Amino acid sequence: MGGRNPYFDEDANVRRAERPFTITFLPSNVTVHVDPTKLPYDEGGLPGSILDIALAHDIDIEHSCGGVCACSTCHVYVRSGGQSIAEATEDEEDQLDEAPALLPCSRLSCQSVPDGTCDLVVEMPSWNRNAVKEGH
């Protein structure tokens, strides 16, 4: 289920990917090949977001609010390729203010939609990794 907060307008600046790209998730060093014709996966966050892509490829990123920009648990560091993501909205920045250990490359994975113009490297902070996977 994709994550949209009914109280926020989806950013009109979001550009959808039109060509294949990769996202490498650190520290697990897992690279995901993204085919834009298969987006969105509707797993969480904005359609085609880093969270949506990660969850569809069994990469667990914590997202307590379900990916609707109502918390900061899906906070990640976009180490490279950040230029392919629209600037953070005021709503995203408000939530990031609540996240620990902010860096200039900090983003909410639920709100970060790569446009496919380059590959990305995304790091999940150590305190934000869900090491336990519960059964269904």
Lay out the secondary structure:
Layout: E1 21-26, E2 30-34, H1 50-56, E3 75-80, H2 90-96, E4 106-108, E5 120-123
Parallel strand pairs: 1-5
Antiparallel strand pairs: 1-2, 3-4, 3-5
Describe this structure in words.
There is one protein chain. It is globular and about 35 Å long. By secondary structure, the protein is α+β, with helices and mostly antiparallel strands. It has two helices and five strands, in the order ββαβαββ. The protein has helices spanning 50-56, 90-96, and strands at residues 21-26, 30-34, 75-80, 106-108, 120-123. It has a single domain (21-127), classed as Roll (Ubiquitin-like (UB roll)), CATH 3.10.20.30. The model is unreliable at 132-136 (pLDDT under 50). 10% of the residues lie in helices and 18% in strands. The two termini are 16 Å apart. The longest helix is centred in the middle third of the chain and has 7 residues, at 50-56. A five-stranded mixed sheet has the order 2-1-5-3-4.
Share of helical residues: 10-25%
Average pLDDT reading: 88
Distance between the termini: 16 Å
Second rung of CATH, namely the architecture: Roll
Instruction: Provide the CATH topology.
Output: Ubiquitin-like (UB roll)
Described by strand count, sense and barrel closure, the largest sheet is: 5 strands, mixed
Q: What is the number of helical segments per DSSP (H or I, 4+ residues)?
A: 2
Task: Extract low-pLDDT stretches.
Answer: 132-136
Major sheet: arrangement of strands: 2-1-5-3-4
The overall strand count is 5
Strand content: 15-25%
CATH superfamily descriptor: Beta-grasp domain
Spell out the helices and strands N to C.
EEHEHEE
* Text of the CATH class: Alpha Beta
What is the domain total for the residues? 1
Radius of gyration equals 13 Å
Principal-axis shape: globular
SS-based class: alpha+beta
